[in-house]
Design goal:
Helix content is 33%, strand content 36%. It has 225 residues and is an alpha+beta fold. The strands form two sheets. Strands 1, 2, 4, 7, 10, 11, 12 and 13 form an eight-stranded antiparallel beta sheet that branches.
Length: 225
């Protein structure tokens, strides 16, 4: 795995995340396969029985196979090129995310400089939404009533104070959300906010390292802020 930080140039990012590759190898393989096929066909024609030569249908079948082989190799080359372009685009996008905030699924709440942000997705409208915040020991330190909310993403902020008004220390907290409409429970999906500090390529996917120490797959990011 390789890590990219905010001081890395775009060119270095592409090289680090995607690695160096040679386009000529794919082309050479296709040419080698085609040459082998043609050599085999030529050998068949040269050594065929004069009294029982290859008929037109056999010749047509052989040539069709050569044509299909060329088409498949051409398609593979095109797909390889498209994949390389996609990886390059994704690499640049991932590197550009360093320093920005992202929304991802989760119930983590990072308190920094006396402020924290979180959110929740509601599949339908709710007339009551309650956020419960807990410390690392699982103890409830604060609750917030968000009131009536429409369906969609609902954001909330926390000033880091507990129920008694005491300012709590910066660090990691968690939250849960309960919602209801007409007395019936509304399903909730918590969303946490994180700041991207680095980008790591693992296999064919990208992982974002957040300043909180958490990691999230690039494909799992709900929104860049």
């Amino acid at each position: 795995m390789s890590t990219v930080n905010s001081t890395t140039s775009d060119a270095d990012v592409i090289k680090t995340l995607n690695g160096s590759s040679s386009k000529s190898s794919s082309s050479n393989k296709a040419q080698d396969l085609q040459n082998s096929f043609l050599t085999m066909l030529t050998t068949q024609l040269r050594n065929q029985d004069p009294l029982n030569p290859m008929d037109n249908s056999q010749m047509t079948t052989q040539l069709a196979q050569i044509s299909s082989l060329e088409g498949i190799q051409s398609l593979n080359t095109t797909l390889t090129s498209l994949l390389a372009s996609y990886n390059t685009s994704q690499a640049l996008q991932a590197a550009g995310a360093i320093g920005s905030q992202v929304l991802v699924s989760g119930n983590g709440l990072t308190l920094s400089k006396g402020a924290a942000q979180g959110g929740v997705t509601l599949p339908s409208a709710a007339d009551k939404v309650t956020v419960t915040i807990k410390n690392s020991a699982g103890k409830v330190v604060q609750t917030q009533e968000l009131g009536k909310q429409a369906a969609g993403t609902v954001a909330f902020q926390w000033d880091g104070k507990n129920a008694s008004g005491t300012q709590l220390a910066d660090g990691k907290y968690t939250f849960s959300v309960e919602a209801s409409s007409g007395g019936k429970v509304v399903t909730t999906s918590p969303i946490q906010v994180g700041t991207v500090s680095a980008v790591v390529k693992s296999g064919s996917s990208f992982v974002l390292e957040l300043s909180s120490g958490d990691t999230v797959a690039f494909s799992d990011v709900l929104q860049f802020m």
